[in-house]
Design a protein that fits this description.
The structure is a homodimer.
Chain A (H helix, E strand, L loop, with lengths): L1 H18 L3 H17 L1 H13 L6 H6 L3 H15 L8 E6 L5 E8 L2 E6 L4 H12 L3 E5 L5 H17 L7 E3 L4 H8 L7 E5 L2 H10 L12 E5 L5 H13 L8 E7 L6 H10 L3 E4 L1 H7 L8 E3 L13 E7 L2 H11 L4 E5 L3 H10 L4 E6 L16 E3 L7 E3 L5 E12 L3
Parallel strand pairs in A: 3-4, 3-6, 4-5, 7-8, 7-12, 8-11, 9-10, 9-11, 12-13
Antiparallel strand pairs in A: 1-2, 2-16, 14-15
Helix pairs in contact in A: 2-5, 2-7, 3-7, 5-6, 10-11
């Protein structure tokens, strides 16, 4: 994989060219790219058809792979939205004058070269480029073999757009769709500043366990909502329905309802909207008894141990009954993947205890966990949701694609 | 290494206890620890004597390992300084109300469990604990085998102090001084939130290449100072002397002087203080010619290729002559380890170009690179100097030992 290393070296060098590019030119280039995607739609769809031809229609990846006119228009639209975001670099994050007169500025700068490893979805190629480029970064993209024609078509359009702005094609390097290329990327210490895996847990585990370069882990959400003794039942019902059924395949979807024993009698009311959507419930003995006769028999199962700490990603949910807040916190501490956790309660002290104690990227009181999303949090866009604590936690917007440097101005200062 | 994993699990659990500890209690515990170190001096020195007995006096590690009454007093004093620093956690970093009424707060929180792998210096045991504890973190410490008696003596004192505050001993876990323990620590995904290696480049490389948990790289500084055509010679002379000779063994010490060709005639003047301190110079042909007859012959060598991009950590320095600023920037981009870089110049436009273009943790104009240090930057203390761009760059103070979480308060909010 010497050619991959050689190409990454060129991408590293090209990334320096971006430092000198004024933010308004970046916006212009992104808008030009969006126009170019619109204009090249026929070519992109033709390339996509080649990928689709090799993918069985009943494979779940078929839909992820599929591009059509509305999806292409949405991709171009997202690029225009990113173009409109303010540049996250060149900002003085901190300024101070030391007692000795040295002037310090902590200034936001691009990360440099961002590596992203992803699977079937070709739109990621454009999304990732747009966000990284807006933050002044070059990108090394490793897409799935099954999307290679589509990815190459997108990268061709990006390269052509960059050329019209006098920018080097090496700013965007699409690696060959080979496992050895992934290995080379993960070991490119000094050439790639960060790697973000986007895809299945198996992909994320592979990247984390094999990378020599820094990684930001995104991934699984094992999500709880605790209905406290003091909960408002109406709010709880709406929140449970929304968190469980708004989109079952996303990482912020509800997996386990934790309920205070004093509110077991409310369970039929709380779960009524779930029955209407055929949500299968794995209930502990208390919850099962409370729901029995009030929830469709076919959808009401006894919970096994493995139904707690399980990310369902489907119309399924488990229920755990607890004696008190402490037991709820203990259950969540044991099973949470530290993504999104919620409490429904009216008692202010209980809410504060929960919000302080729960260790997760996003902790909610009286709101649906479905809000864990960069767009919803007002970041304008999102490159992923970090489940680690280093660098970025939770939804990652443009700021997560920056670092900083210390600029120090003196007048012949020496250290004594 | 099942026992290491089991202990790390206990440390993870114990870390939750810290979340509830008010900041003033942390400060009290640290002050008590400092007193306890003073009181236990005889025991600690006795343990240290056992380590020293196995270490040859001519081994450079002997001095790093050595504790004596003044050094112990300094260690206790540093703990008191950390106690006096404000807690970096529980701070609202950002607050906003979304258009839908959801209230968001981005609040600083501890990382959780911080792993530190280090070598001969037993003082690191106390330094790291104090900083991590001030930021609300539990620690997993893996010290060198050669310092094990000393490390265990310090950890005993820490455990006894924690006990008097009702805090679990598991907050500080000293791993056995075995390579397998390092491996277990580096693979403790979900138990240890971050690993900071402190020591030789070989140690750092091993940690980076084998860790499955997030790592912050600290390490080598290949440091340049560029003397521009517009430089003030007096300032340049002082800065070069300070950056090179203040302490030659540190990572921010000057390695390569880059000089504009128009200022070659100033080289004898600029280097005069170095001759007085027997600094060996590896000069390119232009610089060598300029210094010849003005610098002790025995100390003036022809630079080989490998003398550029070399971290000397001793009384040695290379000199490279350049035609202009662009050539200086290219040299630095090629050889810099992105730690600390400086320009000496009076021309404002040249200074700005340099400060913008150079990619390093700290970039200086008219000041010595010796200032790259958490204490000097006003951080109060330093856990290390990061040479990566993720999470923290340059000197890392208490803030680098924190993460954040999003606290979201609603009133029955659901996402449409």
């Amino acid at each position: 994989m010497q050619d991959v290393i050689a190409s990454l070296e060129k991408t590293r060098t090209a990334s320096h060219a971006l430092a000198a590019l004024p933010p308004h030119r970046v916006a212009e280039a992104l808008n030009a790219l969006a126009d170019h995607i619109d204009a090249a739609a026929a070519d992109i769809l033709a390339a996509n058809a080649l990928d689709l031809a090799d993918m069985p229609k009943d494979d779940p990846r078929h839909d992820r792979l599929l591009l059509d006119a509305p999806r292409l228009a949405a991709i171009a639209g997202d690029v225009r939205k990113v173009a409109a975001l303010p540049a996250p670099t060149g900002i003085a994050l901190e300024q101070k004058t030391l007692p000795n007169g040295l002037k310090l500025e902590k200034r936001s700068v691009p990360l440099g070269v961002v590596g992203v490893i992803y699977e079937s979805r070709p739109n990621v190629t454009v999304d990732v480029f747009a966000l990284c480029f807006r933050a002044g970064n070059a990108v090394a993209l490793k897409g799935g073999k099954e999307a290679d024609h589509s990815n190459r078509a997108f990268v061709k359009v990006i390269h052509e757009t960059l050329a019209t702005f006098g920018l080097p094609a090496e700013l965007v390097y699409l690696l060959p769709p080979l496992r050895e290329a992934t290995t080379a990327l993960l070991q490119a210490v000094g050439l790639v500043d960060i790697c973000i895996p986007r895809g299945s847990q198996a992909l994320i585990d592979h990247v984390r366990d094999n990378a020599h370069i820094p990684v930001i882990e995104t991934g699984a959400g094992i999500v709880h909502t605790y209905v406290d003794e003091s909960a408002d039942a109406e709010k709880a019902k709406k929140i449970i329905e929304n968190a469980k059924t708004r989109r079952v395949s996303v990482c912020n979807a509800l997996d386990t309802l934790v309920i205070h024993r004093a509110r077991l009698a409310d369970l039929p009311f709380l779960c009524a909207p779930l029955a209407a959507q055929n949500v299968e419930i794995f209930a502990d003995p208390y919850a099962r008894k409370a729901l029995s006769g009030h929830y469709p028999d076919a959808l009401l199962k006894a919970a096994r141990d493995e139904d707690f700490g399980r990310e369902f990603l489907s119309y399924k949910m488990s229920i755990r009954t607890v004696e008190n807040l402490a037991e709820a916190l203990a259950h969540i501490a044991q099973y949470s993947s530290r993504h999104s956790e919620a409490i429904v309660a009216e008692d202010a002290a209980t809410i504060d205890t929960f919000l302080n104690a729960v260790d997760a990227a996003a902790v909610y009181a009286n709101a649906s966990t479905a809000f864990t999303d960069g767009g919803q949090f007002g970041m304008g866009a999102e490159i992923g949701i970090s489940t680690q604590k280093l660098h970025a936690r939770g939804p990652m917007g443009l700021q997560a694609l920056t670092s900083y440097k210390w600029i120090v101005r003196g007048d012949g200062h020496i250290r004594l």
